[in-house]
Amino acid sequence: NDYSRELQRYNMDVDCPVFDGLYKFCQIYTGASIGGARKLMQGNADICINWSGGLHHAKKSEASGFCYINDIVLAILELLNHYARVLYIDIDIHHGDGVEEAFYNTDRVMTASFHKYGEYFPGTGGVKDIGVNKGKKYSINFPLMDGIDDQSYQSIFKPIMAKIMETFQPGAVVLQCGADSLAGDRLGCFNLSLKGHAACVDYMKSFNVPLLILGGGGYTVRNVARCWANETGAVLDQKLSEEIPYNEYYEYYGPDFNLHITPSNMENHNTKKYMEDTKIELFECLSSLPKPSVQIKQMPRYLGGDQKESSVKESNPDVRISTREADKMVMDEREFYEDDKDQDRQAIPMQLS
d(Cα 49, Cα 33) in Å, to the nearest integer? Predict the structure, then answer.
């Protein structure tokens, strides 16, 4: 009974079941997103990809929507140690509620989500949901209806993202590329092709801002693989062959065994008037965007350059120590002594930024 209550407390009894290796799984995909953020911060990469990440529904105290740990939030928090402003973009068919909630009252992170709205999980992300307090107007939501196609999607995505990049001027961008917005997804109801989906990646890449690309939803597995393989090629400026090469999963891609999928003939319920009216409303919100504040923080130690230039003296210069071990050797700069003579260690509380 206690076990069941704990599962219910953290919402891990319905759509977020416990399975063998769950903790390791969370460590791997979350660590990869944080690692990608660090590579961007260190200047070791212009673009980092973690297709196993992008679990945007998880909250601070509960799992939600097949998402256990919100790796996106943790990666953005890491980026905020170095960049004044970070932009989060979500092209999953579901609203990125967990990420929006985490940064709903700050002006250092802007969230932009293009998602299905109305009687659809998680039920959040209305156009009027724009943030609160300092974060007011820093949450951008474009609610969409069934059947949106490539042309309609790009008619709103590109102008809105151009306006956001102009007004917000982020130091880094995090792009969640959920593949459940593709045509033919088992749980989705959009009608995007692989080319239409990848056009969002190409467009954000064109701004030449440090970019962290993450995965997300997707419930027709063969199309998820198609989508993310195609977008990896797009990031690398490599055009992939239309014919899928033979591999151990080749039979999954029948009967045509091609890379690209054909959108269906489903009706697009997003009228031109609705799209234009919503776009204008969001433009008005962005046009009155207040200048974001810049929180000044000391640069993380691991961004300080070559380890050889570190002020930490190693007992053996031929043996390198880990960052964690080095951090244990750093003394508070307000201390006068480094040994047992120190009598005021508890007199001055540490101030955490």
Answer: 8
